[in-house]
Specification:
With 149 residues, the chain is α+β, with helices and mostly antiparallel strands. Helices cover 24% and strands 48% of the residues.
Length: 149
């Protein structure tokens, strides 16, 4: 923590995609007591590269193995955490990558996730809880179409 009481936090995650008879599908996870849908992501460990963290977090939170296609976007935001009398302000960076599905089952997700599920990419954009993640999925859709992935 710096002298202003702020901390920096770095996470990484991905948009895992596959093609099906239904078109392009992506994986979202449901987390928290309200079942908020979001992209899989988690903290980058000390000494770990963001792309390695993204693949690890996707495997843990969705049960899927994937391969890196390319970086998509790094989003950033601020949030407060901790007890009311000891609030800490965090500046968070999340590196998102486009990831191609290789293997695995969404039922093999870890305990911190309520559910992992495949969605049509257009449906995913409507159910995601956060605008910045909807933007990342839209960018993924553009890259998949442009590059015919």
């Amino acid at each position: 923590m710096d002298r202003t009481g702020m901390r920096e936090q770095v996470s990484a995650g991905g948009v895992v995609f596959r093609r099906s008879d239904d078109g392009v599908q992506v994986v979202l996870i449901s987390v928290g007591p309200l079942g908020r849908w979001q992209l899989p992501k988690g903290l980058v460990e000390p000494g770990e590269q963001p792309q390695t963290a993204a693949l690890r977090e996707v495997r843990e939170e969705t049960g899927l193995a994937a391969e890196l296609v390319e970086p998509l976007e790094t989003i950033e935001y601020w949030f407060l955490a901790g007890p009311a009398d000891q609030r800490v302000r965090y500046h968070k960076y999340v590196h998102f990558f486009l990831l191609r599905y290789l293997s695995g089952q969404v039922s093999d997700h870890d305990q911190e996730v309520n559910e992992a599920r495949w969605f049509r990419i257009d449906e995913a954009e409507t159910v995601l809880a956060f605008e910045n993640e909807r933007r990342v999925v839209n960018l993924a859709r553009q890259r998949i179409e442009e590059q015919n992935l």
